[in-house]
Amino acid sequence: MECRLLTDIDDIWETFADEAFKNQEISSQLLPLQSVFAFDVHNNSVYGAPISYVDYGSTDSLTSALKGIHTLISVLKVNDPMAMISYHSNLLKSCISAKVSRYAPSDWSMGPSSHSKVDLLAHKDRLWQDCQEIGIKNGIECASFHNGMFMNYLAQGKLTCPAEDEQFALGGLEDDLMLQYIDIPHGKLVIPIDNQGHSSPTSMTHIGDIGTFVAAAVDLPPGQWTGHLGMVGDTCTFQHVKHLLTEVGIQVQHETITADQCDEKIRDLDEQLARGFNIGALKGKMVAQMLKVQCEGQFGGSVFESSLNRLCPQVKPVKISEFIQRVY
């Protein structure tokens, strides 16, 4: 089966690709954003996947690259939401022209109801709407993948460790997106709580398991690659994470955050952004909005159906207890 993964190639998605492609009898290709990334022309493969160069602004270029492809999976991450919508619109049109059978737009977030509550995720609703209005009506099986929080954020800030252990702990994660709230090596774990004062549940998945789940999904029979496919390593509260850390001798401060406190942070960050663009404030607002979704703890948001676990029972994802034991 010919499958292509569209990616902007950062360390996280290299881990994803590694897990998705290894031990799989799948012919795969990575189609990078040519305008953003440059590759050594003498080394045109990543993890065994040949690279094709395409123009995401050209449906002719994309259609040519997708000829003979059965499944197209996008993990594009572009900061401009309108560019994401435009690129994916072109991808979907090209899938129709190239007679691609299956398509997945770039989602990789919490449950679908979270999109409207996080500004930088709002465009993902449009991507799925296009799948329903254009893709499915033209005979393409469409699915979106949801993985919740990267479990690996719980290893952010970890001190130097052997390369193999670091790969398991961080899975290629290098950004500092959550460090203000999750920095366990330095005793910090902010616990989202609901309006009753209870720690709210969150679904999370190890980055490596995301690739394993998607590789298994490629082999799903007709009719099952459809709708919102959720994969979950574990669903638990941060209070439970704190308990597991205590069991292995790690102490963290008891600090909580409520939805109202998230709103206060969002207002402060909006004021900063009103004075001028600030990437730190933009990212900070996104995190505060995601934390508010966690505080609410609603099904379809921070917690969602693990439908892909049910469809692919052969995948045995990392549980939070195993992660804490191995990392700490």
From TrEMBL:
Gene Ontology MF, one: oxidoreductase activity
Alphabetical list of InterPro entries matching this protein: NAD(P)-bd_dom_sf, NmrA-like, NmrA/Isoflavone_reductase-like
NmrA-like domain span: 55-269
Residues of the signal peptide: none
Entries under SUPFAM superfamilies matching the protein: NAD(P)-binding Rossmann-fold domains
Keywords for the protein's UniProt record, in alphabetical order: NADP, Oxidoreductase
UniProt entry tagged with the keyword DNA-binding: no
Gene3D superfamilies: NAD(P)-binding Rossmann-like Domain, UDP-galactose 4-epimerase, domain 1
Family classification: Belongs to the NmrA-type oxidoreductase family. Isoflavone reductase subfamily.
Classification via PANTHER family: NMRA-LIKE DOMAIN-CONTAINING PROTEIN, NMRA-LIKE FAMILY PROTEIN
Protein name in the entry: NmrA-like domain-containing protein
